[in-house]
Amino acid sequence: MKSIKQLLGGDTRQYGMVVALIALIAFFQIKTDGKVLTSTNAINVINGNAYVFIIAIGMVMVIVIGQIDLAVGSVAAVVAYVVALSIRDWGVPWWVGVLLGLLTGMIIGAWQGFWLAYVGIAGFITTLAGQMLFRGIQQYIGKATATPVPKEVKYLGSGVLPQWGPDTGLNNSTLLLGVLAVAFVVWVEIRKRNKLRKLNASVPPIYLPVIRIVILAALIGYATYLFGSGSTAAGESLSFPVAGVIVAVLVIVYHFITQRTPIGRAVYAVGGNKIAAGLTGINVRRTYFLTMANVSFLAAIAGVVGVGRSGAAGGTDGTNWELDAITAVFIGGAAVSGGIGTVMGTVVGGLVMAFLNNGLNLIGAGADITKITKGLVLLAAVAFDVYNKSQNKPSITGALARGLHISRGKKSDGPAGPSEVVTPDPAGTASK
Amino acid sequence: MTENHVPLEKHHVILEMRSITKEFPGVKALDKVTLKVRAGEVHAICGENGAGKSTLMKVLSGVYPHGSYDGQIFFQGEEVKFNTIRASEKAGIAIIHQELALIPELSITENIYLGNEVKSRGLIDWSQAGRLATDLLARVGLDIDPQTPIKNLGVGQQQLVEIARALSKDVKLLVLDEPTSALNEEDSAHLLDLLRGLRSKGLTSIMISHKLNEVAAISDSITIIRDGATVESFEVVDGNVDQDRIIRSMVGRSLDSRFPDHTPKIGEAFFEVRNWTVAHPTIPDRLTSKGSNFFVRHGEIVGFAGLMGAGRTELARSIFGRTYGRYIDGELLIDGKSVHLPTVSSAIAHGLAYVPEDRKVLGLNLLDDIKTTIVSADLGRISKHNVIDRDQEYSAAEGYRKSLRIKANSVDVGVNTLSGGNQQKVVLAKWMFTQPELMILDEPTRGIDVGAKYEIYGLVQQLADQGKGVVVISSELPELLGLCDRIYTIFEGRITGVFDKADASQEKLMARMTETVSATTL
Question: Are residues B77 and B208 in the same domain?
């Protein structure tokens, strides 16, 4: 047991939700005779849920500060029309249209943040109002008519990375991503060992990191094969989806921001105890403002990816997107009362919902059964959390979230920096 | 075991906890603890924070249900096996926790009968409940309309409502956990009187307290717990209690003095407040600070004495980044230069630190771990290009854990798992980390035990010896007299006096704390 712990490099409980996810995928893989893990289906799952992940990344921060955003779906819908209409009617290049869309998201975000941070209206109310307001604006500017977007925008939402170079039997873009990911894993392990040596801590036996690398590399290799080996009916090579790359980049960036920067710490501090945060020198209003503004910005990105996937802006864009994102956040271990929740936990929560949807779809379950199942899964996941907490055990989803959060000091998954060891001066002799 | 405590056997024992052992994963919180309480006495339980007092009371009240601990509990001669708090309440045991459990928006009557409503034909009979509440309030000596919402009451009055609530349930054994820790002297005295009165009517109570003078004043017998085990249990004869004996048993060592020896090295004045005038945040014509003038010298520990509501905390917070009230007038000078500190971050940047009075509400994010908390007020110190260096964070926090002797296995431990004294050390470390020149400590030892207090006093003296200025706000006059080099008194927002350590006494301070005297000594 101890060696398993050492192998996983942390509290084994925090992997509970990951185990649940793997079990879920395995269940549907068997049930559907292998239809889940195919190139086309995997690409579908990623593309079809990219918007959930993108919004949920911002939503988890909003929920951590103890607020909620109900307007993100409407914001995405407005942005979809801004992109589609500006390109079609104003004749701007596609990328200008996309930038206009993102700018719209930022302006809306500033609006939402203003009412919470500087007027003091709860996020639930400002964004409930925003949900109606921006849905109305979307209907006003869009007239509910389908407005197509050019192929470049479609590429962002439904394209895959291109094939190039020598014939390796796989898609070379995907292969490159896979190689980079493995290299990253190896580098992290080496850096961790070096750091332990430097701190004169006991260095675990070499086979542990090796096994860890082998397992992770095997997973990455499998994913590379899964995404890179398929081809369309027309014989074109399939690859990792563009929307997947966007999601991955955002996840890495926001994981880093939330875990490694002062603004990230401010988000958790305000969510945990805003009075104490204020007395610690954190600008609570600014933190509120930025967090609310940020989720609207991410909703705008989701709007662009969403309109790219559907090919045209339409009247029902973004319907219930806020609920999908909120579900992912809570399955990912966030607390309604704020202060708890992580980007990584949310990603796992989003994956659980994505594969659940997909698996049920593949076994031919109707919308009714799918909804019933999703509702029960959300309840079960959170109930399990609550039960564990009441038993004074660290919860699985919570530990997943907190575990990743807590292990900030132990894991070394960030870029190398000079790790100068400061010897603090307990009573502050060193004057400034 | 029993033969050691023959005197206790002579009387009717209402409660006996026999060989209680309670384990948490990896920790033995209670190890064969024994407790015997006689009917009609006030029984004090003393012990350092983390000694296991609260755990013992949770076992007693059924928070930890029967079966989750080893040992037996006998109440009124029968073995009891409580599975819920309700079960223990039904048997007549009521616990009043340190954190009051009243609902601020509801009235006194509603709170007293919450979950225990006075019913008549299935509906709540509010008029009857109101009459009963009035009687109960009279029994606890609270002359106030039972319709009053709890939020309008002071802490001391709320405590009395809690006791009234317990009395309404026909309580046989009343347990008070640190009942006076949030009360001023007057309210504390009133509470002790009430307990005496209830005792004379036959009520048995258990009082957990850190305040040894109160323990001495009221208890009939005392049980001391240390590190999860009963150290000793003895009767108080003729009100004579050897406080040193209690301290020795609690900490397992003798404390020669409650304060470490200290020779101050006082330098020049560097921090000065002139004509500081601040209004209440919502009531414009009420001034919480009326033209206050004071200064702090390098290496000096300056005390602020005042009754609750005198405006000590308000003064400190209005100076610390204007976190309280509306600024009207006045000037702050550091090293003779006027400074403008409109925000907390500007105050920190100018070398100020403020350790608030209520660490759980104002000082800590209880979801955080030790290391995140310690670095939280000065992330810049461990960041490069706005990226936190977690190795520096870890080693900085680890340094404080060792030097301040914070009892935790590592700095990855959540602050919510620490005892009050250790939480306070974490908050102190958080502010030491900002390398302040002036450290304002608001009730730095409230709710923490004797041993930890001693350590905190030592830390305060160390800070002063390094040339920092320290301001200590405290409701405990002996603490101010023992620790401070100079003490200001405040009454109704006005500084009414200042005393050097040599000529300060409780009587002199109290005289200035309770009446407006022009600040001629300034």
Answer: yes
